[in-house]
Batch of 3 targets.
Target 1
Amino acid sequence: MKLGMKRLAAVGALGVASAALAASPAFAKGDISIQATPHTVHAGHAVKVRGQGDDDAERYTTLVIQERSGKPGHWGHWHAVTRSFNGDARANVKATHTGELQFRSVLYSTDKHHQHATTDRTSTPVTVHVVR
């Protein structure tokens, strides 16, 4: 009889633990990154840029690599370089002027009808120095 009560208590504890785990909220994973090489480039040469991003909670996403030029405090506007619907975007960007270029990845999510795109997440910009 003692063994039966212990078994019943163990089964009951497992049932309560299972119910607690099932009731806890689920967290979606997502990440975004950007790489640009080389970090210093001569004007007229190309910079290889790769952006990656995903969000498990969103069904339809678009990853856009953006660039801007200038210098700290006097940056231009962000411009799209390329986009990808599979979360992995690559581009070769020609550095035309001396100064600095910045690149970032932006992940947009849309509903099932591909309307009303909203910014899901944005990467920290990376800077490339362009010399003569």
Target 2
Amino acid sequence: MRTTTAAPLTATDAETLVLAARRAADAADVPVSITVLDAGGNLLAFRRDERAVLVSGETSTAKAYTALQLNAPTTDLVDLVKPDGPFHSLATALNKPLLFIAGGVPIHRDGQLIGALGLGGGAPEQDHTFARTALQAL
């Protein structure tokens, strides 16, 4: 049986994502932080608009990490961790920086998970929209 391996996320890919996300956020006049992680959760790129709130750097990274670990957009996970949700304790059960707020998206190539992108600083749905827009640049 032959398996194919998707090309990994590169520094050039990460720069493309940061630029596309920044353009989307700038067009909406929303200062954000942008984090790109590779498939192993390693930081490939980070940018914080100087006007963005300081915590946005941490939230963008936690959103990217959450999207990577669960291979799902964070916007799809919000209801799962509410008090009546099936994974309500997941946010506090692990010693990991999981954040269940919209703005994190997994990155796939040839059907395989190769990394994640996270945005923080705008309203959650804005961050999600900017991230989805940036993915289209790859």
Target 3
Amino acid sequence: MHSSDGSHAIAWQEGFGRLGSAFLTHLQPTPLPNAQWVARTPEVASLAGLPDGFLHTDAALQAFTGNTVLPGSQPYASVYSGHQFGVWAGQLGDGRAIHLGETAAGWELQLKGAGRTPYSRGGDGRAVLRSSIREFLCSEAMHALGIPTTRALCLTASDAPVYREEAETAAVVTRTAPSFVRFGHFEHFAARDMQHELRQLADYVIDRYYPACRNGWQSASANTDNAYAALLYEVGQRTAQMVAHWQAVGFCHGVMNTDNMSILGLTIDYGPFQFLDAFDPSHICNHSDHQGRYAFNKQPQIAYWNLFCLGQALLPLIEDEDITVQALEAYRPTFSYAFRRLMCHKLGLPSATDSHEAAATAVIGQLLEILATNRVDHTIFWRRLSLSAQDHDYERARELFLDTAAFDRWLLTYQELSAQSGQAPDANLMRNTNPAFVLRNHVGELAIRAAQAGDFSMVQSLHQVLSQPFADHPAHSAWADFPPDWASSIAISCSS
């Protein structure tokens, strides 16, 4: 599609922006000097319905750096509230995110780092190159792993200074999703007893993203025609699936505040995240998390806690505490089932719904215990186990353990379970479930250092490799190897 002057034009449609001034503030991005491309994702451009070739134009570079406003776009920042580290934080909002609007293909475009908004709370509204590279790469890595996530359209850089712990340079990530509505949007209006706006928001989300909720919610324990209870239930189901994926792949989000929880069950707001190196269930990846609230093994329970906050916010609409609790409680069995199913796939076993469910659960639990005791590298172990199943030789997995006798005992139970199911572990399933490549902190750090020196080639190569994480990529095998000693000194905080 092209406009009359021959330039590319994007087709927009009404989305969240139509809700009005109680929900958002219209504003303009703040320009940055000397914009340059760092990386782009043509697949996402196509998904979002952008015109062919637009992502390779100077017009796109300027628009996605915040230097110009695309024709038809009406930029805005939205207001929300939330609980941060378990404490009510009051009003928050898009402090450094500016929405460009929703494309006709149904994807919202959002600039992260394009300047101050009314919700910046004293901040500069900017993002630094370091954290922007991490978000860009991880968004796309998570998608390629099959994990629900926002997507990253492109990343641009500027030499404008941004001050965090030290002077850094600015960058803007253009991220996209069907919606960026968060649990905190609902908390905001509930806390202010703005029930008209609360209902308006809930109706918008239901009609736009969960239309089946208008038929109510039926389960073994509940039968109601309440659309708002159905919404809570569906959000809980999606959240359970998302967190099960996190736990299976070893992903630590790092800052699961209610304002960082997507109403669509998407992984959102990549800040102090980390993929586990050594398997440590109590690992804390966020150096700002002094109490360990968001430790890896606490993520499933924190997600439930956040859903409870959403349930409280929706209660004035649901008007029935019992139904609200039943909708919330459905999260737990869904998470357990989803996690067990994913772990069985990692082991190349039939789904855990069969008659061997208890035995499969025991095998998984035993394995996680010896992985933690031996501090085995999470990604490398699962990849080697996949190759071991393929070769019928488990030595390459066994040698990762200091306590080889413990591994041998586990291997015996694993093989017995396989025999009971009547089939060998499915090596192809394992190879397509257990990635060779994840975005390890130290690899990301190397790409960041090169980019800060003006070389974006490693960012672009990593982008390509992480988009095919189950392939071997022999030219980049070092990125799938054990982390170096210095990797443990990388500190990731909320300011990252």
